[in-house]
Amino acid sequence: MSSSLDGLDWAAIMSPNVQPTPGLMDIVPTPTTNVQPSTSPGARRNENLSTPVYKFQVCSSCRRKKRKCNLERPSCSLCLENGWICEYRHMKKKPGPSKRSGSTVAAASPVVAAEPELNTNTTFFSAANSLSTISENAKNRLVDLYFVHVQPILPLFCRSSFERDLAECRIPNKLIYALFTVSSRFAPLEEILVLLGSSNSTPWKSFARIADQESQAQEGNTHITLNDLKADVLLTLYQFTSFPGRKAWMMVGTLMRTAFAIGLHRIDCGIPNPDLTEFELEEQRFVWWAVWKLDSAINSITGSHFGIDSHGIGTALVSTSVAKFTAGGVVRSNSQFLPTDSSRSWMNAREILTTDTDDGMNMHLLSICFVRAVSLCRQSLHANTTPELIRQFSVLRNALPCMRLSLSEWYFDPSMQSLETVGSHRARLETLLLMHMSQVQCFLPFPSSKTGDLLGDDSVSNWKISVASGEGIATIFRHWKPEYFAVADPFVCSTIWFTMCMLSLHTMSIYGQSEAGPDVKISNALDLLNVALGNFARRWELSQRLLDSAIQLQSWNWLKIDFSQILSLMAQLHTPFDPLKQEPAGIDMWQIVGTMNEYQ
Q: Which GO terms describe its cellular component (predicted)?
């Protein structure tokens, strides 16, 4: 994904005028000072020539992308808006007389080149030297944090192979920094600062910047390796969980195209490659499904179309559990594929469950597949209501009830079963959360009466079904163990957020409420979801943004609104984040909910 990451030129950064600092993260911009002329023989030979003059131009990102720069410091508005790294480099004028009419440059004294102004928002240090300043103890701790907290979410590595290659300096710097970016957030900040010998309060941002710079250095038509793609997966995960706005939205698009370019979407179709071992093939499958999950998560939360069509996937599901893969083991592929017809995914559910890995990863992917299908169909119906889409959506509404009948009863019981491990129970709960969310989306009334009429809907009845499914989501957290938060998929956060918004609006409605007071079940459900999202917020910045906006919405619970206003608000809340938002500072729920004042 090097084409979407904006880095810096190392030669410019580490020029003689910019003094390196002894610490890894503590970078203080050096004030501009006069530099004495060089006394080297080369300098003396040229002392009679006009001394080069340096001049600040537009920032490097705007110049490279051919955009109009407003020259603001320390970061221009375009770089600030798009998450680019803003650097003002100096450009050298050609030596010689000035082009002004009738005058020459009098070189009585050498003109000193001005130092480039450093962007105080960016930490600069040499990528070549920075790894050597990190102690082995710090590296080992950051790697351990990754395998404990991130590998269960997006499994990419065999641990022993990774640690051996890291010790032998065979891991690309970009991948190392990307891994440190996501892992450094899972330990107390005080511990990380002690390990790195730094006072930087956001070391993960520093790691991410260097990884971006490494990506910039790799731009061009060079060969793309699997390690390049793994680094891009981790950087996209970091950007998504920081703020799933424009940059994450663009990054996942590039990530998807890169995965297609190296053929990860067709590992198990055509003639097999005899040069690849079973483990290498399974490793590629894990990386492919990591890309697919990010495509699903980011485009769902931004309400945009998905970049991967299920009909174009020729890669089988994994046959190895995450724990076994991390330990270096592999199970020969059983050639099980996700269904191309998601509306009838229940027909494959029993077979996938029977051949699933010990941790239930493939059933989790099946539930994501179902959520994708519902989201895509709703998006299409918003844009163009056709008879074909109406039929497809009606079939999707029937999928979850059919799945309940096709699977064993225990699977939908959120309590931990006697033969389940902690890991498989957590994965099953995440799967159930997504299944309930797909049910919410299937029956959530459409704001357009035309769509509802074509579906033959009773909007109030469908709203009650969605609310009941939301209560089911809250019930799952009665069986959620506290240790699950540390290794759970952050995609769960958007499910919690949407459910909280829906139930909060339900408490504001003027219909269906008893005179004795608000529904206690709804109130209890909101409390559970509030606590759950708060626990996620300790680890993922995305969760804190969602929690703040949900609490802001709940502060309006004194308002009473009718059903048409509920539908109008739910249509606006359908997309938690606008990927084209200029100020990625969270969701301004006051602007959305404030429209209700017009109806009071």
A: nucleus
Q: Which of 179-183, 255-259, 557-561 has the lowest mean pLDDT?
A: 557-561
Write out the two tokens for 176: 């190392």
Displacement of CA 215 from its chain's centroid (Å): 17
**Residue 54: phi, psi to the nearest 5?**
-100, 145
Query: Which amino acid is present at 109?
Result: S
Please choose, from the candidates 355, 356, 281, the residue with its C-alpha nearest in 3D space to the C-alpha of residue 315: 281
Which helix (DSSP H) or strand (DSSP E) does residue 92 occupy?
strand 90-92
What is the C-alpha separation between 195 and 132, in angstroms, rounded? 14
Return all residues near 201 (Cβ < 8 A) that are at least 6 apart: 189, 193
**Most distant CA pair in the chain: distance in Å?**
95
**480 contacts 429 by C-beta, under 8 angstroms:** yes
- Are residues 196 and 25 in contact, defined by beta-carbon separation less than 8 angstroms? yes
Give 350-367 pLDDT, tens digit per residue: 889 988 888 999 999 999
Q: How far are the Cα atoms of 317, 511, 518, 519 from residue 515, in angstroms, in the given order?
A: 52, 11, 8, 10
Token look-up 């450009």 returns 91
**Amino acid at the residue 457:** D
Placement of tokens 């991967």 in the chain: 308
- Parse the chain into domains and list their residue ranges: 131-230
230, HSE (Cβ side, Cα atoms, 13 Å):
25
The half-sphere exposure of 422 on its side-chain side, counting CA atoms within 13 A, is 10
* Length of the chain (residues): 600
CA distance 322 to 147: 11
Q: What is the residue type of 212?
A: D
In contact, 233 and 287? CB cutoff 8 Å = yes
Q: How many CB atoms are closer than 10 A to CB 476?
A: 20
pTM of the model: 0.75
As a dihedral over the C-alpha atoms of residue 414, residue 415, residue 418, residue 422, rounded to 10 degrees, the angle is 80
Beta bridge partners of 509: 561
Share the mean pLDDT of the chain: 78
Tell me what the mean pLDDT of segment 6-20 comes to: 39
d(CA 34, CA 31): 10
3-state secondary structure of 560: coil
- Give the Cα separation of 377 and 4 in Å (integer): 29
Per the omega criterion (within 30 degrees of 0), is the bond before 74 cis?
yes
**Contact, 509 vs 560, CB < 8 A?**
yes
Question: What is the distance of C-alpha 204 from the center of its chain?
Answer: 14
CA distances from 489 to 122, 287, 511 (A): 30, 16, 36
Give the closest residue to 490 by CA, choosing from 182, 203, 147. Answer: 182
